[in-house]
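Same chain as my last thread, 138 residues:
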Amino acid sequence: MGIDENVRTGRHCVFRMHVHLVFVTKYRHKVFADRHLTRCEEIMRAVCEDFEAELVEFNGENNHVHLLVNFPPKVAVSKVVNSLKGVSSRRLRQEFPELVRHYWRAQRLWSGSYFAGSVGGAPLSIVKQYIEQQNRPL
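reply #2:
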């Protein structure tokens, strides 16, 4: 069996973990233009590197962004999300003063909630079947 190029290795583990994240702007305000999303991607890519994670894919619309992040098992998804949202909010509001006018009271770019879904690998039914078919000792 060959080694999948998407499989990563740590000191004591071999892994391939991806999460699909969606962040929406506070109050769903339509604030992003292409230049905002381009800079947001750069910021989020740098934050992911700090966590030894990889931003595999990024895109968005005027009021939300989608990220596909490959991350190591030693990192909690909630920690990555907290940093991604916090750093990007702060930097985008500093670099683009026009964003501040939408949030003069809240002082936050992102809604407090987010979507996180695990992705990749085999469908759950196949994994379940594989586990059921293991040779359990008598």
